[in-house]
């Protein structure tokens, strides 16, 4: 045997030995991790039982890995039992929301609709606004829509649903110790205020008084005057062997039927003793009837007596007593068990307010009680909807909320289908029908019910939702009709202004070079679509250009983090045997979705991390902190997330780590995941003062600044801490600052810096302190803060220091400072954007072009380029620059600027439309309001 052959033989033996070792490691892992342990998760939302079929493949996954390991000559292949990604495995989802082919026009129309609608009828218009803006994915914008809808709600039903929806959006149910009837002190989310009928235009700003009991029976006091009752006299009602003496006139005054019985032609009118044994009321119940007849009040009767009163009132049409009993019972429902117990009785007796009170508890316990049989029985069937409708508690609003909860929890469940069917039945307006039918089509498509899905999508198109053509095309494609699917999308491209999603969809049905052309056109028109990047990367993988594939994925991940792209990049890293990078991406992915299943739902991501970790150098807690500092200082947010995830595996109760995680997620614009981390930080707090700080941040991030300040102050009163002072300073700095308030914020930040903390947070505090000093024109003090921050590796302080140099008229030093940031930071788009302010026009254009390449979602570069073109009197090009960006990023500032351009070009109708669209996004934006007033007058003159 030759030396070369011997070398090969030795190499094979080494590989075999390595795989024997791997098999042993895997076997040891499986022995140490029983199946039930492997399925454990730290995710707040429990894994849905309806997805248990996926877990059934789990042992097969491990066996596949073991089998691959036994026969393969590559370690990477053992982690890729399903092979490398293939283009046919990827297709973009059909989006569940309403999408307009002309989003700006739709926004403008909706703003006009809001303006033309009476205040007390606006609630559903704001719900329509919520449905339209959902595609933007901005939680704060959506919360404002729901708050506006709640503010303008009149009836109890709408108030109950919208208050519960606002609570669900904040996921209050995930806070340990939180009650379903808790609220944040605002009327719009207060469960007690929701049970009061009427319109209060200022309710969105009002504080509720939850510590004061609402007097539900107060309006019923003294309803029956002493004059009621006709002829005085006593009547005795016999119930079994007992009797209750009542004033005949008072009982008669309760209702027409009782008056006829006691004073009419019935035989009871002549009797002093009337047998009520079989009426269905007890002696105590009849005494309560007597008491109410004489006083018009309800004392503290137990619920069973109140239910008897309600039944009696229904039997004898005693409307005042029924209303009083209904109100009183509604005020007594305090937990979900009571609500589940009383709901059927309330429906049977048609007690409107009691039904609303029970529904409120059910809705405010979502998603936890979504699959409770009693809850399902209340909502899901057509008969259930009809029963709710009889008491005014069935609506499109209700089923829109319920279906959104179900879709988020388990899109493919039968419950989701049933709720969407009810949503369709409740839809009356065109947009409501379009939404219900489109969402139903999306769910049916996921369930592979292609014919039914196609029918739903076609009906949605008839209701005016053009985007549903994507659903029709997809269902045709799934049924083997590729040509018809392609022709359908071609027709849409020809009829409407082309958008990115149109070319993305057509690429699924194209062949050869046309496919890649369509994918590239999709990116050109909308660079925020992830599918084109994934497709191009996968093509490169198929051509064995894996490094190039990672570069392509990085283009997208650099400005928008999504689990699917992180998975694909991890997939590629495994193929390159770069396990450290793969672990980084999977850990970051698990931060976004703790139950994520990789390889098409066949392998748990958390378990894959455990297997990959056997092949990298383990980090001690000290190593993790070092790694976190390095990544934080290099502005590597994904790497920082991964390190924190690893630290939390070893120490899941560390609140401060959860808090750091939330800060990173907010920076990456992953707001839902950030809020989940904040809630976990709050739940794991070991002290009251720490818990108050995290509750304050939750309130601040959901738009409740005053409540956040109150939490910070309460925390400081218990314990002076860095985070409490920092929260208070941050919340106060959010308002317009004068010299006095700026001085106070400086004091707060200085107090924060005196408290124990680590360099990561102190760097942020120094950076913020520098910004306040700059605003106060104390440039030397600001520079000292930024230098101190840089000394503890707070790299972003370069930007503040550059600003100081610029204000001192040293643009060269400012430029060089920003260059240092560009050299250090992994996420460079904002640095290029900021550096453009410190150089000449040509260099600025170059930096801004780079910023757009790195992050096409940043709007300043488009606005700058458009302004430059406008200055050069190239008006059409200036408008086109903004239009291109607005098509995928309908930003308030860009809409306002384009409206101003149109105004200067005397195109007042388009200026008006842009200003209306901008006001739909922010109705209080002063510059746009001024522009709207001017252009509206001019547009009217020209009509």
Brief descriptors of the model:
three-stranded mixed sheet; mainly alpha; globular; about 950 residues
Number of helices: 51
| Number of beta strands | 5
Largest sheet: 3 strands, mixed
Cross-sheet strand order for the largest sheet? 2-1-3
Unreliable segments (pLDDT under 50, ≥5 consecutive)?
A: 1-13, 15-73, 211-231
In percent terms, what proportion of residues is strand? Answer: under 5%
Radius of gyration using CA atoms only: 33 Å
As a percent range, the share of helical residues equals 55-70%
Secondary structural class: mainly alpha
Shape: globular
Distance between the termini: 95 Å
- Look at the structure and give the mean pLDDT: 87
TPR repeats: 763-796
Protein name: Ethylene-overproduction protein 1
Coiled coil: 808-835
Organism: Anisodus tanguticus
Description:
The structure is a single chain. By secondary structure, this protein is an all-alpha fold. It is built from 51 helices and five strands. The strands form two sheets. A three-stranded mixed sheet has the order 2-1-3. Strand 4 (597-598) and strand 5 form a beta hairpin. Helix 46 packs antiparallel against helix 47 (860-871). Residues 1-13, 15-73 and 211-231 have low confidence and may be disordered.
Short description:
The protein is mainly α and 943 residues long. The chain starts with a helix and ends with a helix. Keywords: Coiled coil, TPR repeat.
Fold blueprint:
Elements: H1 3-32, H2 35-38, H3 52-55, H4 58-71, H5 75-78, H6 103-116, H7 123-133, H8 139-151, H9 156-170, H10 191-194, E1 234-239, E2 242-247, H11 248-252, H12 256-263, E3 273-275, H13 283-295, H14 303-315, H15 319-332, H16 336-348, H17 352-364, H18 373-379, H19 382-389, H20 396-409, H21 414-426, H22 430-446, H23 450-462, H24 469-478, H25 482-495, H26 500-507, H27 513-525, H28 530-542, H29 546-557, H30 563-575, H31 579-592, E4 597-598, E5 603-604, H32 605-613, H33 621-633, H34 637-650, H35 655-667, H36 671-683, H37 688-701, H38 705-718, H39 722-732, H40 739-754, H41 759-775, H42 779-791, H43 797-807, H44 811-824, H45 829-835, H46 841-854, H47 860-871, H48 875-886, H49 892-904, H50 908-921, H51 926-941
Helix pairs in contact: 1-4, 6-7, 6-50, 7-8, 8-9, 9-17, 13-14, 14-15, 15-17, 16-17, 20-21, 21-22, 22-23, 23-24, 24-25, 25-26, 26-27, 27-28, 28-29, 29-30, 30-31, 31-32, 31-34, 33-34, 34-35, 35-36, 36-37, 37-38, 37-39, 38-39, 39-40, 40-41, 41-42, 41-43, 42-43, 43-44, 44-45, 45-46, 46-47, 47-48, ...
């Amino acid at each position: 045997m030759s030396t070369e052959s011997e070398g090969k033989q030795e190499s094979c033996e080494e590989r075999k030995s390595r795989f024997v070792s791997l098999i042993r490691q895997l076997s040891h892992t499986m022995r140490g991790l029983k199946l039930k342990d492997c399925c454990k998760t730290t995710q707040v939302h429990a894994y849905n039982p309806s997805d248990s079929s996926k877990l059934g493949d789990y042992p097969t996954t491990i066996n596949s890995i073991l089998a691959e390991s036994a026969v393969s000559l590559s370690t990477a292949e053992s982690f890729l039992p399903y092979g490398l990604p293939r283009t046919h495995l990827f297709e973009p989802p059909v989006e569940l929301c309403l999408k307009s082919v002309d989003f700006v026009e739709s926004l403008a129309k909706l703003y006009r609709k809001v303006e033309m609608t009476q205040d007390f009828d606006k609630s559903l218009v704001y719900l329509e606004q919520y449905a339209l803006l959902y595609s933007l994915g901005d939680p704060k914008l959506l919360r404002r829509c729901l708050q506006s809808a709640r503010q303008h709600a009149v009836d109890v039903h709408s108030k109950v649903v919208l208050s519960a929806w606002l609570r669900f959006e904040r996921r209050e149910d995930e806070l340990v110790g939180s009650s379903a009837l808790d609220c944040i002190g605002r009327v719009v989310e207060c469960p007690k205020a929701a049970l009061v009928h009427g319109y209060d235009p200022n309710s969105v700003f009002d504080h509720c008084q939850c510590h004061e009991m609402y007097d539900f029976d107060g309006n019923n006091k003294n309803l029956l005057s002493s004059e009621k009752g006709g002829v005085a006299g006593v009547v005795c009602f016999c119930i079994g062997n007992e009797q209750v003496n009542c004033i005949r006139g008072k009982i008669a005054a309760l209702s027409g039927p009782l008056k006829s019985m006691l004073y009419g032609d019935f035989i009871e009118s002549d009797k002093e003793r009337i047998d009520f044994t079989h009426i269905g009321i007890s002696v105590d119940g009849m005494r309560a009837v007597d008491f109410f007849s004489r006083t018009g009040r309800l004392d503290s009767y137990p619920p069973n007596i109140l239910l008897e009163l309600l039944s009696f009132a229904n039997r004898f049409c005693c409307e005042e007593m029924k209303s009083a009993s209904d109100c009183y019972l509604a005020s007594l429902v305090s937990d979900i068990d009571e609500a589940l117990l009383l709901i059927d009785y309330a429906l049977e007796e048609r007690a409107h307010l009691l039904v609303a009170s029970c529904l409120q508890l059910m809705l405010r316990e979502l998603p936890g009680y979504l699959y409770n049989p009693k809850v399902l029985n209340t909502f899901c069937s057509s008969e259930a909807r009809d029963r709710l409708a009889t008491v005014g508690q069935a609506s499109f609003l209700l089923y829109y909320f319920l279906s959104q909860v179900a879709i988020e929890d388990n899109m493919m469940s039968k419950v989701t289908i049933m709720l969407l069917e009810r949503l369709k039945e409740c839809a009356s307006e065109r947009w409501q029908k379009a939404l219900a039918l489109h969402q139903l089509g999306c769910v049916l498509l996921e369930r592979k019910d292609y014919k039914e899905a196609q029918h739903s999508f076609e009906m949605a198109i008839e209701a005016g939702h053009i985007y549903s053509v994507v659903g029709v095309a997809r269902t045709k494609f799934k049924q083997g009709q590729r040509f018809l699917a392609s022709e359908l999308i071609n027709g849409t491209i020809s009829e409407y202004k082309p958008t990115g999603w149109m070319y993305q969809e057509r690429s699924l049905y194209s062949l050869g070079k046309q496919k890649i052309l369509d994918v590239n056109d999709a990116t050109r028109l909308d660079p925020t679509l992830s599918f084109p990047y994934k497709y191009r990367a996968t093509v490169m993988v198929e051509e064995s250009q894996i490094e190039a594939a990672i570069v392509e994925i990085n283009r997208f991940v650099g400005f928008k983090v999504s689990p699917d792209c992180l998975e694909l990049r991890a997939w590629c890293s495994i193929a390159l045997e770069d396990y450290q990078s793969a672990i980084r991406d999977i850990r970051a992915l698990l931060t976004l979705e703790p139950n994520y299943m990789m390889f098409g739902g066949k392998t748990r991501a958390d378990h894959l991390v455990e297997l990959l970790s056997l092949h990298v150098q383990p980090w001690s807690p000290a190593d993790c902190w070092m790694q976190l500092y390095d990544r934080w200082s290099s502005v590597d947010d994904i790497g920082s997330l991964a390190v924190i995830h690893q630290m939390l595996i070893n120490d899941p109760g560390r609140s401060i780590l959860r808090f750091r995680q939330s800060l990173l997620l907010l920076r990456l614009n992953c707001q839902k995941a950030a809020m989940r981390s904040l809630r976990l930080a709050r739940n794991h707090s070991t002290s009251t003062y720490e818990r108050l700080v995290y509750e304050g941040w939750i309130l601040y991030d959901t738009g409740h600044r005053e409540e956040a300040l109150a939490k910070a102050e309460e925390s400081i009163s218990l314990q002076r801490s860095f985070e409490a002072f920092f929260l208070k300073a941050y919340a106060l700095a959010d308002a317009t600052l004068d010299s006095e308030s700026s001085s106070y914020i400086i004091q707060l930040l200085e107090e924060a810096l005196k408290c124990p903390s680590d360099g990561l947070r102190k760097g942020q505090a120094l950076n913020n302190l520098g910004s306040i000093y700059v605003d106060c024109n104390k440039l030397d003090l600001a520079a000292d803060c930024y230098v101190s921050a840089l000394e503890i590796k707070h790299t972003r302080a370069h930007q503040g220091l550059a600003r100081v140099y610029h204000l001192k008229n040293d643009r060269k030093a400012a430029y060089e400072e920003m260059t240092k940031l560009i050299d250090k930071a992994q996420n460079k788009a904002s640095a290029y954007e900021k550096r453009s302010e410190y150089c000449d026009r040509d260099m600025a254009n170059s930096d801004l072009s780079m910023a757009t390449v790195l992050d096409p979602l940043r709007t300043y570069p488009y606005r700058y380029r458009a302004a430059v073109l406008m200055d050069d009197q190239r008006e059409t090009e200036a408008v086109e620059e903004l239009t291109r960006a607005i098509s995928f990023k309908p930003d308030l500032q860009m809409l306002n600027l384009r409206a101003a351009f149109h105004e200067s070009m005397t195109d007042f109708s388009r200026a008006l439309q842009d200003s209306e669209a901008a006001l739909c996004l922010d109705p209080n934006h002063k510059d746009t309001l001024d522009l709207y007033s001017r252009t509206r007058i001019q547009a009217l003159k020209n009509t």
